[in-house]
Amino acid sequence: MPDPTVQLAVALDGLGWHPAAWRLSPADPTAALSPQWWAALAAEAERAALDLLTLEDGSPLPPGAADGPDGRTDQLRGRLDPLLVAARIAPLTQHIGLIPTIGVTHTEPFHVSTSVATLDHVSGGRAGWRPRVSVRRSETRHVGRRDLPDLDPAQLDDPATVRILGDLFAEAGDAVEVVRRLWDSWQDDAEIRDVASGRFVDRDRLHYIDFTGRWFSVKGPSIVPRPPQGQPVVAVLAHSSLPYAFAARHADVVFVTPADAAHAAAIVAEIRAAEEIVGRVGPPLRILADLLVLLDQTPALARQRRARLDSLATTDGRSDATAFTGTPGQLADLIEQWHRTGLAGFRLRPAVLPDDLTAITRALVPALRERNLFRAGYPGGTLRDLLGLPRPANRYAAETPA
């Protein structure tokens, strides 16, 4: 029987997800470069008992053109590194999950594993990671270690494009597998701290992962003891069949972008079918729908805000996620309807910060609680506990001599 309550996440980026957010936000345009900004947003989200927050990748110069800077000067550009922001937030929060986005195309999995494991230790078991596949040539030029051809979004069925995307996602799959093995390379009881014998660790409980693949050859073990969650949560943003299959193989949570309730039901069915095809082992994916939200006290005021933002953006402001413009009560109606399709919850993208975040936390959350769709507080435990995910057994523990 599906859970009657929804899981609720918020995606934080700059001064908001609308390209003109900085023009209407009451915050100073430089606020997104200050630790106080991120600490205040995280505190607001945690006061409403949201399950988790995500932080966007700092690799591309947003939004940019496909092959490099687009020369625009009317949009907020530049970000702080999401992993370092999460590390700054961690000691200032107690319950909310923290999921930074870290690219896999240009980042060594050993470094990702140690960084996210460290975040899990620092946060007391509230860390996650959103692996991101990079397809832009502009991003490859930032790093300078590889190159990619220009990929035309209108020709994704082109055989050469299919091959390139397949290779990128296969590489990402290997990266996630290396990271997961490294998280297990220390057993939970590897640190024995036996003062009498002078042994801090039991070497039999540290393991070489000996991973050799097309893109990586990593021996291990990690330099960081096993994270408190055993395996921090892996979350994937997916829009189509290839990333759905990637999520089914490698993730715990998947963020999807349905257009309406019928589309949400179709996506849920496709993901469940992908889990069967790849032979998924363990709990089914937690599927959360992404929505870009712009909220106000009345529908008319919300539409006026949206029109004002669009007029200032000098772009069409299109998003990969469905944009909702209306009141918190109307959004609660939509969430209730879409939740029946099999979605576990929603990841909301505030159009303007902090305004749309506070509308979520102070108006939407109470509306959902009135409908018994969202819990009243935190039950305690790790992020995996919050999401209803069991703590995985260590894959190497059975190899240790009794």
From TrEMBL:
Superkingdom of origin organism: Bacteria
Keywords: Flavoprotein, FMN, Monooxygenase, Oxidoreductase
Leader peptide range in chain numbering: none
Luciferase-like domain mapped to chain residues: 34-306
Keyword Translocase found: no
Binding site for FMN: D57, T101, S240
Keyword Cell division part of the UniProt annotation: no
SUPFAM superfamilies, per database record: Bacterial luciferase-like
InterPro entries associated with the record: Diverse_substr_monoxygenases, Luciferase-like_dom, Luciferase-like_sf, NTA_MOA
GO molecular function: monooxygenase activity; oxidoreductase activity, acting on paired donors, with incorporation or reduction of molecular oxygen
Similarity field: Belongs to the NtaA/SnaA/DszA monooxygenase family.
Protein name: Flavin-dependent oxidoreductase, luciferase family (Includes alkanesulfonate monooxygenase SsuD and methylene tetrahydromethanopterin reductase)
Organism whose genome encodes this protein: Micromonospora yangpuensis
Lineage, highest ranks first: Bacteria, Bacillati, Actinomycetota, Actinomycetes, Micromonosporales
